[in-house]
Amino acid sequence: MSLLDDYAQISGNDVIAHLQQLAAPFHGARVVHVNSTRVGGGVAEILTKMIPLMQELGINASWEVITGESQFYECTKGMHNTLQGNQIHLSDKLLGVYERTNAENAEALRESLTEADFVFIHDPQPAALLQHFPNRKGKWIWRCHIDASHPYRPVWKYLRKFIVPYDASIFSLAAFAHELPHPIYLIPPSIDPLSDKNIELEPGAVRQVYEKYTLDPERPLILQVSRFDRFKDPIGVIEAYQLAKKYLPSLQLVLAGGEATDDPEGGVVLGEVQEAAYGDPDINILLLPSDAHLEINALQRAADIVLQKSIREGFGLTVTEAMWKGKPVIGGDVGGIRLQVINHHTGFLASTPEGAALRIRYLLYQPAKIREMGEKARVFVRDNFLITRHLREYLALMVALLY
Ligand code: UDP
Q: Running DSSP on this structure, what letter comes out for residue 90?
């Protein structure tokens, strides 16, 4: 059986036939995706699966990763934070490193990007590559994954000049889109139901994570999976847990995270989280390696409720992953979480630790509600947020750019 047959089992034959039809004009076409990390975070997660699926459809798809020194990541993390609303001044020196790193990577990627028929540039890190390709052959698309609804103006103004010459931009939802002199597409991300992160597991695999992390399967478990990043509000999760635990003393919390190679702030935030959790043996902070997909899958299945209490969120693949496993998600009332968590139906939106604690208590007192919401959540993801829908929209965009 081919990979496409496997997807047909989940999404249906019609969906696959439609993909094949849309991909037909692109047999042999060179499509290059560019981002700044191969592991960690949602973009890497998506590209790991999107590239093979494009290849399976006959497209000559590849993935390039730009690299830089530590100051480059310091600058791009600053851009990420400012696009999500933080007011931080980025010095001329750091911006100089940003531009120089893009120029160096442009040389390293010269052949592949000059010849490509389509180039998808993900997020701000590689956005300044385009200016180094005056003789480019193909269409270039800037794909913004972050919540850029309220950017810090000086940084957006600086970045915008690199983005203007692109042939199109993609944002995950309308609230993030900006006026640009080229077509704007709204395409939410997706998960791959066949990846290790999301495939069905034997009950033994879930038992194993309980044992490995000395969690008690008889007691309620809430979970947040996230990089240690303040936008993910791990401290707010601990506060929500502490408030709920006053009424549910047997409650257990797992905060599972790892590092992304392009995120230099993780260590500091992890320290803050450890301090906030200090002294409570029922708070489990797990530092997982970047390839712990099966383990995260098992943890998401082990949890009764999954939290994603972000205060800014481009999309939140962790939300999609949990919903696909039939879990109600209590998510921050922001960005892409709003697209997925339909309040009171597929989960709850909560803006404060108090609000999240209230919903934790509500659900844990009513297991039938957990099942009902979880089932709605699973169907919602099947219908809207699987990789097959995502790829269909990329292909439709590519068709549109041909004319
Ligand atoms: N993830 C992981 N290990 C971790 C933390 C996160 O594999 O320790 C994965 C998570 O399962 C999800 C992705 O990284 O697939 C995070 O994507 P999301 O959109 O939730 O957030 P981002 O990190 O891109 O802001």
A: P
User: Tokens for 65?
Assistant: 């990763």
**Does the C-beta of 77 come closer than 6 Å to ligand 1?**
no
Distances in whole angstroms, Cα of residue 349 to Cα of each of 195, 323, 358, 383:
27, 14, 11, 21
**pLDDT > 90 fraction of the chain, expressed in percent and rounded:** 95
Instruction: Please say if the pLDDT value at position 260 is more than 80.
Output: no
Nearest residue to 133 via CA among 44, 34, 50:
34
Tokens of 392: 């269909």
The ipTM value here is: 0.99
Q: CB of 194 within 8 A of CB of 324?
A: no
Lookup: tokens for 174: 């309308």
Could you give the 3-state DSSP secondary structure of residue 100?
helix
Name the one residue in this structure whose structure tokens are 């998808």: 120
332 lines ligand 1 (CB under 6 A): no
Probe residue for ligand 1, chosen from 296, 339, 387 as the CB with the greatest number of ligand atoms within 8 Å: 296
How many whole angstroms separate alpha carbon 403 and alpha carbon 399?
Answer: 7
Contact 306, 222 (CB under 8 A): yes
